[in-house]
C-alpha cells in the first residue's frame, strides 16, 4: 500500500470512532425516551392539559409585551461571541505557511460583517450609556 492510502485509512478510521460514538449516543437517548414512554402512566385530566406558567393558573391574554432592547443586547452578545470563536482559530492558522493571504482576506470579510452589526447597534442607540 502506498503512504497516502495508509494516511487516508488512519484519517477515516479516526472519524469512524466519532461516528460510532454518535450512533451510540443517539441510540442511548432513543432507548431512554422509549422506556420512559412505555413505563410512565398516561392519565390525562383537564387540569393536566391546561396551560400554566410556573405553577400559576393562567389569567388574561397570552400576549405579553417585551422590550426590543433585550433582543438587541442578545444580538450584540452573539456578535462578540462569534467574533471571539472565529478569531482564536484564525490566529493559529494565519501563522501556518501558505495560508496567510487567504485567511487575511477572510478575516477582513468577517470583520466587515461585524462592523455592519455594530453600525446597526449604533444607529439604534444601543451603544449609548444612559
Write the layout of secondary structure elements.
Blueprint: H1 3-39, H2 46-49, H3 69-94, H4 100-123
Helix pairs in contact: 3-4
Can you put this structure into words, describing what you see?
It is a single chain. This protein is mostly helical. 70% of the residues lie in helices and 0% in strands. The chain is built from four helices and no strands. Helix 3 runs antiparallel to helix 4 (100-123). The longest helix has 37 residues, at 3-39.
Describe the structure concisely.
With 130 residues, the protein is mainly α. Helices cover 70% and strands 0% of the residues. It is flat, with a radius of gyration of 26 Å.
Number of helices: 4
The low-confidence parts are none
The secondary structure category is mainly alpha
**Helical proportion?**
over 70%
Q: Kindly state the number of beta strands.
A: 0
**How far apart are the termini?**
70 Å
> What fraction of residues sit in β-strands?
under 5%
Shape: flat
Order of helical and strand elements: HHHH
Query: Radius of gyration over alpha carbons?
Result: 26 Å
* Average predicted confidence as pLDDT: 80
Main beta sheet? none
List descriptors.
mainly alpha, about 130 residues
